[in-house]
Batch of 4 targets.
Target 1
Amino acid sequence: MQKGSSLKGIVPMRYREMRWPVDYPVVVLRGSDRIAATIVNVSSGGARLQLAQELANGEVVTVALGNKRLAATVRWCRAGMCGLRLLTPLQRPDLATIRQGRPNADAVTSGRWNSHLHELR
């Protein structure tokens, strides 16, 4: 880099977590509301949910995963789908349990992803 040059405007590449397509029913808890939802793709740090009720961007919700409760922030919500960022990453056993909802699903890795999987950036 030349003297006096600036990195302003340069965006560093970000690591993309592996995502798996799944079909795993969960309940989203928002205050006293219980909203039925289905996880349609998951990574250790987030999930895409299909649900009938819209959530607000930035809202903190709880996802009931069996007897576990996972806190998450809503990153986006539109057309019956919501992207969540988990406040604590999923542990391997929990991720494996969710992935078993759809056996033989191939991982979606950086460089091999579909355009509809960009929501968890």
Target 2
Amino acid sequence: MRITLLLLSFCLLAPLAAAQDDDPSAAMMAAMQANMTPDENHEFLQAFAGDWTYTSTVWMTPDAPPMESDGTATIEMTLGGRFLMGTHTGTMMGMPFEGRATTGYDKASGKYLATWIDTMGTAITMYEGYVEDGKLILETDSPDPITGAMDHHRMVQWMDGEDAQVMEYYVTTEGAEEALMMRMNYTRTGE
């Protein structure tokens, strides 16, 4: 009798289990779960998290003398290790400055994505990029606020050991070669 019940149970449950394997909602849930789970690309961003002091050097044109300023940055992983969010506070061109960044890795597109806002303008700048040789490279095209022409912007950021990082910002204006516009050197503070 037990064997008959076991065989009957198997015959009734086997099609249900097969139906679950063919259930499109189960496949969708598995794909969503895989997409929402942080991976090694998010771990790469973790190295940039921390409390930092920084010095920035800005060249308004390639042949102009550099302007230097300094500040602090608090950068942290948020939303379960999915996004890197940072606030920069200091001075820029002799004025108080604050900027905020969000950087993440979009598993669906296979790209790093970032946004930047600051007190030097009213734009929300959106970047996309990749990692090459341990460096995060983010790029965008945006209008020059003076001429209105579209400029190409390229940001390259990397860790220089465990307690230092460097960010270089390059701009290509219409009819000109790419030029280094800003370099920021960060030093980790605290623990």
Target 3
Amino acid sequence: MHSPTHILVIRFSAMGDVAMTVPVLKNALDQNPQLQITVVSSAFFAPLFAGLERCHFHPAHLKTIHKGATGMYKLFRELVKKNKFNAVADLHNVLRSTILKTFFTLAGYKTAAIDKGRGEKRLLTRKENKDFKQLTSTHERYAQVLRKTGLGLLLNPATPVYQKQQMPASIQPLFLQNKKMIGIAPFAQHKEKMYPLEKMKMVVKLLAVDNQMIFFGGGAEETAVLKAWASEIPNTINAAGNFTFTEELAIISNLDVMISMDSANMHLASLYTIPVISIWGATHPYAGFYGWGQNENNIVSIDLSCRPCSVFGNKPCWRGDHACMMQIQENLIIDKINSLT
């Protein structure tokens, strides 16, 4: 099987899943000097790939010109007009990516799609008699798809992706030069993955005595909460709603540590080799979504027979008490931060 020289990679969403493609593509490009990669994804995610040599980005406008099957055909025509691909790697395997991949298959391109391991994930998360073991990581599942196209690829989690970025001059004066910079990303897409906000606020207050805290989030509701915290707690900055995505990535690259849920900010920080104290409730690293190169000693969680109860944290707590998060004491998070100093 000939090794491809130009692969189209499809991964439309969500932010954390898109961010997890970056270290895989970095390894692929480093190990295959002849390789070019074009990533097609939501336009907002373009900055994630800006630092990869020989990696090109094609924006997908899924709510407008590329909406539905006709939009996917238009996207297909755009892509083949601009590029000569040897293979197409679908790292998403949802309806719209399958439609796009099918157009390439019918046109004679070699295509491959991710196996998400849904069956084994159901066994891991079922209510009783869980098959409690580490499953294949999402990074490795992405790599498997690229190998199916004929590409040689061996993942090395010790491989750094990006270096620290220079923060824009307009941002630098906001940060205290003599304090450790700790990022806080207290939100997640689903509430079952979130540490209770009142407990997280206490963590912030305790850490802000000796450190500078930078808040990350998105959307009007999250931004409002973080804005209120920043106005109340000294030594804090609210990044949510105040910086571009590119600027937020530059800030993240300069952190000393990030505190995150099982959410996108864990993966964003991992791109810059920033240690992440990750807090896990309804979900579990065994499902394969742990941050690239992160130390497992930095996981904060408690052992409960009901964990994990879902892969994505999108199922209500059947116990009704959210014990997996409520029983995590604030000092456990503080101690993890202190252990890094």
Target 4
Amino acid sequence: MHSILDGEEGLKAALGRIASGLYAVGAVHEGRRLGMLCSFVEQAGFEPPMISIALGTDRPLRGVLEHGGLFALNILGAEDKKILAAFASGREEDPFAAFTLVENGHGLPQLADALAWLACRPCGSVAAGDHIVYVAEVVEGCLHREVGEPMIRVRKNGFTY
């Protein structure tokens, strides 16, 4: 058996093949909504329901999570290209402003057009190189559409987004 790529190039390519979903993550901080696109998310437990999420050390949302503030995880569907584009650009001060939001008891940004939505409370974190990995309890969630698959991403290079 031979390798097509090895060394650093092989490592980049192999890491990039770890599939992930795409998520519009949001919170409210000092009266304003913050939002970002995130792909480093995974279910981490059943009872209670838990997820893990990794954020770059420079992300403004970290300020909310560091203090145990609730955050929203909007799960994008394969057809949610408009949402993806708005959050991927990173230029919008409030990327949620362009979309219809659903009211919820937590005051979190809940995209009406996302496939599903979760409200999460951080419980702990660990430094992981240039990211911080948070473990969060899922305190509420809903499915917006029964039909549709989640948006999946496979990268060519595991060293970049």
